[in-house]
Design brief:
Layout (H helix, E strand, L loop, with lengths): L14 E2 L16 E4 L7 H9 L2 E6 L3 H6 L11 E3 L10 H8 L4 H14 L4 H16 L3 E5 L6 H13 L3 H9 L1 H4 L2 H16 L5 H8 L3 H15 L2 H7 L5 H11 L2
Parallel strand pairs: 2-5, 3-4, 3-5
Antiparallel strand pairs: 1-2
Helix pairs in contact: 4-10, 4-11, 5-13, 6-7, 9-10, 11-12
Length: 259
């Protein structure tokens, strides 16, 4: 099991995505960049462990309806800044519409996830949250935690963009992205999640389809980056022109994150 995984009892996929070498010969510092799934089921021991990490900023990438359904637990007295979406949800979440209306096969799941990743960098909610996250990275001394529901897709894309900005090699960035498949016991979770889908939508997907939904694949992240390059020419141009990470802000982020 990777040493990047932090031993939380009831918060899935909690890990450090720092401590990678960069192209400039430096290294991302440890325990400054953290990522996870949601914290609604955090145990008291988890809250104590969270407190010990010195988190100054939490970026909650979930929709308002997700936050309302599974409100985060925080340690008593937590004084950190929480960045979350400011707009109300507009309509049904895409994954709910997919589960409700589409044949749930491994191929259909992969097709849905690929298209989701192609759209994710340009969703107005994500652009707003990603922009505020990068601004926070430049000014925050303590750790910054990013999370969504499962800590794999929205979180995975934002972590990968951070790695690109900091000069982390593509192989290391991809390894970090794919670590979800180790951090989450997909085999054990698949039957449980399939039963929930059946209860809510009247159809039970196969375990293979459910595992495709729960895990991540290199092609998903590649689809997001390809879409960014198609629209903006490069990831650097997207970071600069869409998320506001110009040379000055980028230099401040790199100075804070790299030892």
């Amino acid at each position: 099991m990777s040493t990047r995984l932090l031993g939380f009892e009831a918060v899935e996929n909690f890990r450090d995505y720092g401590d990678y070498a960069t192209a400039a010969g430096r290294r991302l510092v440890q325990r400054r960049l953290l990522r996870s799934g949601h914290h609604a089921r955090a145990s008291d021991a988890d809250l104590a462990a969270f407190s010990a990490l010195g988190v100054d900023v939490v970026v909650d990438l979930r929709r308002a309806s997700e936050r309302a359904a599974q409100p985060s637990r925080r340690p008593q007295g937590f004084a950190g800044r929480v960045i979350e979406s400011r707009d109300a949800d507009l309509g049904e979440a895409p994954h709910i519409a997919f589960l409700r209306s589409t044949d749930l096969t491994p191929d259909s799941v992969r097709g849905f996830m690929t298209e989701t990743y192609r759209n994710m960098p340009f969703d107005a909610r994500h652009v707003d949250l990603f922009t505020r996250y990068f601004a926070a990275l430049a000014e925050t001394e303590g750790a910054v935690l990013i999370h969504c529901a499962a800590g794999k897709d929205r979180t995975g894309l934002l972590a990968a963009l951070t790695h690109h900005l900091a000069g982390v090699g593509e192989a290391d960035a991809l390894e970090d992205y794919l670590l979800t498949n180790t951090a989450v016991n997909l085999e054990a979770r698949a039957p449980e999640v399939a039963a929930v889908i059946e209860r809510n939508f009247g159809r039970r997907p196969s375990d293979a389809a459910t595992r495709a939904f729960l895990g991540v694949e290199a092609e998903y992240l590649a689809a997001a980056f390809a879409a960014v390059r198609e629209r903006h020419g490069s990831l650097d141009a997207y970071l600069r022109d869409v998320l506001g990470v110009g040379p000055e802000l980028r230099a401040r982020i790199e100075a804070r994150l790299c030892g």
